[in-house]
Design goal:
alpha/beta, single chain, 16 helices, binds pyridoxal-5'-phosphate, six-stranded mixed beta sheet, about 450 residues, four-stranded parallel beta sheet
């Protein structure tokens, strides 16, 4: 039988997958290492296991012990899985700005979560950092792994990520790229790869608002480089011990916006439903690749985690729009079109029994070109001004007939979140308008004119 004794035995050996669409036009082969295939859905499973096993070897953690870390996410998940396998208790301290889902996820895998205030200095005794340290002091046989300065982090990648990439590319890798947070992923992997082939080029991906790039290029730790940014997991305002600058050849900085848009492209165009820092890594690496890769080169990019943790952010259109990360023109939806009418929301309809002559009158008074035909609360048909006039010219007697005798099928209903490109593909000579029902059960009409306005404003 082919099976594992515990889920943590499945950590590592993640697949390399070729990029096809987002890398179009770039020379060489661009591969991504899909770390969400780890059981905790991130690259951090690797370091969680190594930090705990090294602590056990050094006698820092004994059976029945407690693992304490200040974490909001991936590392916590990895530690929780390892704790289950090995019978440890887990306590995580988290800032209260983190979403309830993140707390729930860690509790789901048995961790105790202590929620601490966000708006206090790290030194404040209430900060998640101070609380973790205090718990570590007070609880006997407890371990505070500290992924930033614990070199087991770096070693995990030297021992697993590096050799896997070397083996899976059959030594053909020429360029390696990864985001830099604690630095363990980039430095451990790069050290191994450069030991196999010294001229492999390693590209570190940094964020705007972080100190790494300037420090590498000038040797200066410039606190002016530090300002708030949104991307999670990469960039720092400190120099963690796990960043070994000698293993990194170049840094590329990526904005929150470019990263967020690339993250969505990876999901939609490559089928890679990945996290935000994956967009940073891919965007920065591809920018570098555009200029430097030659035919025959092989670049490997690390994609650290899964998209589920970012459903409320980069994968949420409203959030993206609020941050100015979406191009309105392309991504405007039926909801946006209705909102822009500034309160003009009245939908004119005509009853199916209304005479054709009276319907023409409605067109004239309201200055509209098409109308839904209703029977009580149901939409049973539609009429278009020009078509109705042509019918009248051909047969003036229809003036006194009910509109139901000459009407066309009802306009098609669409969803509030359908985008303009989808809406315009549904409007044609036979379907002159669309209907949409909002959450309050109110029906709105979207016409060709609305789409033109949305596309040109
Ligand atoms: C989502 C995500 N991406 C990238 C990284 C960067 O990896 P490393 O810490 O090994 O530099 C992290 C680390 O915290 C992360 O959480």
């Amino acid at each position: 039988m082919n099976y594992y004794n515990h889920i943590v035995e499945t950590i590592g050996n993640t697949p390399l997958v070729k990029l096809n669409k987002v890398s179009a036009g770039i020379k060489g082969t661009i591969l991504v290492k899909v770390e969400y295939m780890n059981p905790g859905n991130s690259v951090k499973d690797r370091i969680a296991l190594k930090m705990i096993e090294d602590a056990e070897k050094e006698g820092l953690l004994k059976p029945g012990g407690t693992i304490i870390e200040g974490t909001s996410g991936n590392t916590g998940m990895g530690l929780a899985l390892v704790a289950i396998a090995k019978g440890y208790r887990c306590i995580f301290t988290m800032a209260d700005k983190q979403s309830q889902e993140k707390i729930d996820i860690l509790r789901a895998v048995g961790a105790e979560v202590v929620v601490c205030p966000t708006n206090v200095e790290p030194e404040d005794p209430r900060s998640y950092y101070s609380v973790a340290k205090k718990l570590n002091k007070e609880i006997p046989n407890s371990l505070y792994p500290n992924q930033y300065d614990n070199l087991s982090n770096y070693k995990a990648h030297y021992e697993s990520t590096g050799p896997e990439i070397w083996k899976d590319t059959e030594g053909k890798i020429t360029h390696y790229a990864a985001g830099v947070g604690t630095g363990g992923t980039i430095s451990g992997t790069s050290k191994y790869l450069k030991e196999q082939k010294a001229d492999i080029v390693t590209v570190g991906i940094d964020t705007y608002g972080s100190v790494f790039k300037k420090y590498k290029e000038t040797g200066i730790f410039d606190s002016n480089e530090v300002y708030p940014y949104l991307t999670e997991g990469i960039g720092e305002d400190i120099l963690p011990k796990n960043v070994d600058f000698s293993t990194i050849d170049h840094f590329v900085k990526v904005t929150d916006k470019d990263a967020a848009i690339m993250t969505r492209r990876l999901a939609r165009e490559e089928g890679l439903f990945v996290g935000w820092s994956c967009g940073s890594a891919a965007y920065g690496a591809l920018e570098y690749a555009k200029e430097h890769l030659k035919d025959g080169d092989v670049m490997v990019i690390i994609l650290p985690d899964h998209g589920t943790r970012y459903l409320g952010k980069v994968y949420n259109d409203a959030w993206m729009r609020n941050h100015g990360f979406l191009e309105e023109r392309i991504f405007a939806t039926a909801r946006d079109i209705i909102k822009r009418r500034n309160g003009y929301t009245k939908l004119t309809t005509v009853n199916k029994n209304m005479k054709v002559g009276d319907v023409i009158g409605v067109f004239n008074i309201d200055g509209i070109s098409q109308l839904p035909v209703a029977d009580k609360d149901h939409f049973v048909g539609s009429v278009h001004e020009t078509k109705l006039l042509n019918s009248l010219i051909q047969d003036p007697s229809i003036k006194d007939k009910p509109v139901s005798e000459v009407m066309d099928p009802s306009f098609q209903f669409v969803g509030m979140d359908n985008t303009v490109d989808v809406l315009s593909s549904l409007i044609n000579k036979d379907n002159k308008a669309l209907l949409v029902r909002d959450e309050a059960n109110k029906v709105h009409i979207i016409t060709e004119h609305d789409l033109l306005m949305a596309l040109t404003r």
